[in-house]
Amino acid sequence: MSENVETVRRVYEGVNARLEAPRELFDPDYEFDNTELWPDVVEVLGFEAAQEAMREYWETFEAYHVEIDEVIYTDEGRVVDVVRDGGRMRGTDAEVWNRFFHVWTFRDGRIVRLSIHTDRNRALEAAGLQE
């Protein structure tokens, strides 16, 4: 398994444990693109801004959890994975689980970009791949 996949796993572990990704895994020029899910939000630049953008979503759950269901593609510069995320909604007994496709881009072993997609083909296209 590639080092990049292990880095992605460490991000998910940090979010699961503390609702915060380990800062040292991210490049100072990190970009977060969640526009497919939140079209009114432009790409977010920087680690802090990205964490803040996601915190409201994570905190809608009593116990948020994210895990890799499948690694679709990996090379020295990218990881494309399928994740399952969600949990019990805060203040209710209802559980909500989502399936997303994450495209991670790396430079010099650090994460420089993450884009989130709801469709496998769009994720592969965003990664410059075709299935």
Q: How would you describe this protein?
A:
- The protein has helices at residues 3-18, 47-58, 120-126, and strands spanning 26-33, 44-45, 65-74, 78-88, 95-107, 110-117.
- By secondary structure, the protein is an alpha+beta fold.
- The protein has a single domain (3-126), classed as Nuclear Transport Factor 2, Chain: A (Roll), CATH 3.10.450.
- A 6-stranded mixed beta sheet has the order 2-1-6-5-4-3, sandwiched between helices.
- The longest helix has 16 residues, at 3-18.
Helix content: 25-40%
CATH class: Alpha Beta
- The CATH topology name reads Nuclear Transport Factor 2, Chain: A
Ends apart, CA distance between termini: 21 Å
Strand content: 35-45%
What is the total number of structural domains?
A: 1
Q: Let me know the largest β-sheet.
A: 6 strands, mixed
Which structural category fits the helices and strands?
Answer: alpha+beta
The counted number of beta strands is 6
Order of helices and strands: HEEHEEEEH
Overall form: globular
Mean pLDDT: 93
Task: Give a summary of the structure in a few sentences.
The chain is an alpha+beta fold.
Q: How do the helices and strands line up, and which of them pair or pack?
A:
Elements: H1 3-18, E1 26-33, E2 44-45, H2 47-58, E3 65-74, E4 78-88, E5 95-107, E6 110-117, H3 120-126
Parallel strand pairs: 1-6
Antiparallel strand pairs: 1-2, 3-4, 4-5, 5-6
